[in-house]
C-alpha cells in the first residue's frame, strides 16, 4: 500500500517549481491532490495532467491564499471534491530581493501578504477539516540561516514562518495535527531562472559553499515533504528540516 493511499492533500502554489514537484510526489505516494494556482492555470493543468497520466488523482483549483475568501474556497473545494483533507502544504510564496534603500511599503506588503498571511489564512481554513494524523508542511527557506544581502524582506517572511510553525505545532498538537517546515537551499526552478539567479555570480557562490556541490532540484525538496506528510513522520512536529545540500 502506498504511504499516502486514501489521503487528500492541498498544495498551494503548485503550478510550477517546487510546488509542482511536491504535488507529483504526493500523488505518486497515493494521495489525491488539489493543485492550487493563483494565475497560471496552464501550469496547474499541466501538473494535473501529469499526475492523472501516471494513474493518480488531482484537480486544479484557482485561489489567491492571501485573500481569506479564496483561501477558504480552496480548502472547501478539496473537501467537496475528495470528501476529506489530510495534508496541507503551504508552498505559495514570492521572492523579490531589494537592498534596504529600495524597500517600499508595496514591496513589503506584497511579500508578507503572500508568504505569511497566505499561510495563516490557508491553515486557518484547513484546520477546520484536519483531524487526527493531519499534517501541515510549511515551505520556508535556508536563507534564514545564511542571511543573504538584499533579501531582508523575503528573509523576514521566512523567519516569521519558522516561528509560526513552532507555535502552530504546539497549538494544534492536542488535535493530533502535526506542523513542520522544510527550508530549501538554492533550488533551480522556473522562478530562479526567470529572476536571473541561475547562472549568476550569486548562484555560483552559493554552489561553491554547498558541500554536495550542486544546486538543488525540485524533487530534492518534494521527497522530504512527502515524508513529512506520511505516517513515517508521525513522531515529528515543530521541526524545520533544512534541505540545502549541507549549506548553513
UniProtKB/TrEMBL annotation:
<dbReference type="Pfam" id="PF13561">
    <property type="entry name" value="adh_short_C2"/>
</dbReference>
<dbReference type="InterPro" id="IPR036291">
    <property type="entry name" value="NAD(P)-bd_dom_sf"/>
</dbReference>
<comment type="similarity">
    <text>Belongs to the short-chain dehydrogenases/reductases (SDR) family.</text>
</comment>
<dbReference type="InterPro" id="IPR002347">
    <property type="entry name" value="SDR_fam"/>
</dbReference>
<protein>
    <submittedName>
        <fullName>3-oxoacyl-[acyl-carrier-protein] reductase FabG</fullName>
    </submittedName>
</protein>
<keyword id="KW-0560">Oxidoreductase</keyword>
<dbReference type="InterPro" id="IPR020904">
    <property type="entry name" value="Sc_DH/Rdtase_CS"/>
</dbReference>
